[in-house]
Amino acid sequence: MSVLNNTVAEKSVHWIEVGTLNDIPPLGARVVRTVQGDIALFRTTDDHVFALRDACPHKGGPLSQGIVHGTRVTCPLHNWVIELESGSAVAPDQGRTACYPVRVENGVISLAL
Prior knowledge:
Elements lengths: L1 E4 L9 E6 L7 E7 L2 E7 L5 E5 L13 E3 L2 E3 L6 E3 L15 E2 L1 E4 L2 E5 L1
Antiparallel strand pairs: 1-10, 2-11, 3-4, 4-5, 5-9, 6-7, 7-8, 10-11
């Protein structure tokens, strides 16, 4: 299976292998530490993987410790709901956290920075 989230021109992107699909439980998350800061990888029940900066746009809560439901995650600090595809807060809340391109090929997760 090959999944690419967050459209990116493949030729201009440097992909880094960060783990396997089995490293993240369904409706779970894992953190990848980078020089750009912590990035949370989220897995949905249908094995889509999304990557967001591991900080809620509200008060910087660790999204990786939140509850994943559908294609959203709820921040554990103040219950803000964040869209995994865009990093945007769900109304009435406003704000956005950075999202990163992810691909899954043969069960291997790669992240573009």
